[in-house]
Amino acid sequence: MNPAASPRRDARRNHERLLAEARILFGERGIEAPLDELATRAGVGAGTVYRHFPNRDALVRELYDTAVGDLHGFAPEILGAESGWRSVELYLERLAAWVAESPYLPAVMRRVAELDPDYKPGAEFEDAINGLVARAQAEGALRADVTAVDLSVLVDMLGSVGQYGGAYLPYWRRQLTIVLDGLRARPGLTPLPGDGQAFDEFHDMSHQKGPRPAAD
Fold this sequence. Notes:
The protein folds into two domains: 7-54, Orthogonal Bundle (Arc Repressor Mutant, subunit A), CATH 1.10.10; 58-206, Tetracycline Repressor, domain 2, CATH 1.10.357. Helix content is 63%, strand content 0%. The protein has helices spanning 5-29, 35-42, 46-52, 56-79, 84-100, 105-115, 126-138, 148-159, 173-183, 199-206. The chain is elongated and about 65 Å long.
């Protein structure tokens, strides 16, 4: 038996517990919530928090990177669906539920954008989302004027029910169904006004860096 294995397991267990409790605490009280309270909730000493995360920003950065990992975890099911339309359904359903259940995410995204404006791992998903949109449109299932950014904004809109806490989570699929019906291709649709926003502008805006100025 390796005597070093148990301390490593304990450290990993503490690390995961701190991340889990930080998600709850930051969702309830914001990312400036006292780290001493995090230690109390996780059942560890304050020194343990700082051994794992030297400062608050290190904790926020890991929460962000973990969220990006979650997105990678969703990708095989969404992109591997039997049809483009099913990919659209899964994209909205899985990601909107994830956002609704993670109310700390907007503040984490803002902080990371402030800390490192050039760090944009989320931008790597642009081609995948464009691809599922193109596939669904080629099938004639998704209205032809919808873009990847439209779907991403709808994820944020549906996910915003998380602001109500858990009280509305049993009901949010009502809005999901309304949205999906509005996305279906069919005769007599009202054309969407104007051109959609560029993906990189949406990415920056969603991190509250603001869209780029309009070109002259």
